[in-house]
Amino acid sequence: MELLKNTLAVISDVDREAGKQAQKRLDSLTKPPGSLGILEEIAVQLAAIQGKAIPALGQKVVMVMAGDHGVVEEGVSAFPQEVTQQMVINFLYHGAAINVLSYQADARVVVTDVGIKGDPIEHPELNIRKVRPGTRNMVKEAAMTEDEVVAALEVGIMMVNGEIDKGATIIATGEMGIGNTTPSAAILACMTGKDLELITGRGTGVDDQGLMRKRAAIRKAIEVNSPDAADPLDVLRKVGGLEIAALTGVILGAAARKVPVVVDGFISTTAALVAHKLHRYCQYYMIASHLSQEPGHKILLEEVGLKPTLQLDLRLGEGTGAVLAFNLIEASVKIISEMATFEEAGVSNKD
What we know:
Layout: H1 2-10, H2 16-28, H3 38-50, E1 59-67, H4 82-92, H5 97-104, E2 108-115, E3 126-128, H6 146-165, E4 168-176, H7 181-192, H8 196-199, H9 208-225, H10 232-239, H11 242-256, E5 261-263, H12 266-278, E6 286-288, H13 295-304, H14 320-338, H15 342-345
Helix pairs in contact: 1-11, 2-3, 3-14, 6-10, 6-11, 7-9, 7-10, 7-12, 11-12, 12-13
């Protein structure tokens, strides 16, 4: 608990003056003001986060947190639980979409086992930080104990601190956990009071009956556990997931170190919502990579106050959308640092 408390204590606002200086420079470049849209917004945000008018990027890291979910027993997923372990192995042998896209973006993938069920995975690239082998079935009891949810949060903080210490300048969030859109929708329902019909999607592709089971499981879990909507840790503990908690820790840890976080899809943005509820300044360190097909994702983004960079009809997770956004974020840095001003180029500005 001490690490979590200390991390929350040092999160502070971004440097608004640096952001203003970045905007001033952007307005002096050879283009109409604001004509590069969200690229300019990202450049200003990065400047404010880093505290310098012209931001810079170096190492890029995708942090993939993996954990299983007891609620899978309720038939909420189209895939069996062992796929979590199988896909993590696929990540480690560089065969998944996140590996391909990260290679293209020159980003490093860091995979952490925070709660996978099954036999231990032995691989030198896997970080084993298992809090427990999957959450409990939230339909019957709380998904985690108080100690477990804090431990999972602190795994995320420790892991992101380690990557920043190694030179990471921007972090992307990724996850793997069969069934994890169910706890994500449950957290969203608890924190916003939104109707499950509006926010619960098909996840990995469940049919109509599967979708009905999923909504029923969420309703029952909320009824059984009575999460306190005003207490984000209570909600996360009772109806959340180990990898969602760890990603929340990643976001908190990065914000404390003034490092930008590129948030992936529905599950990652659920972690973003929890982080935002734990500390309001976290919002300013997050960049929303995309708007996914999951119906609750738009509501999540609105709750956190984030605007998606891309809309590509993605629903894979893993961090894929966040890695795709790396390319645009790097473009925004190139724009502010390499474009000529009107004065430098000898181009007449508007009157």
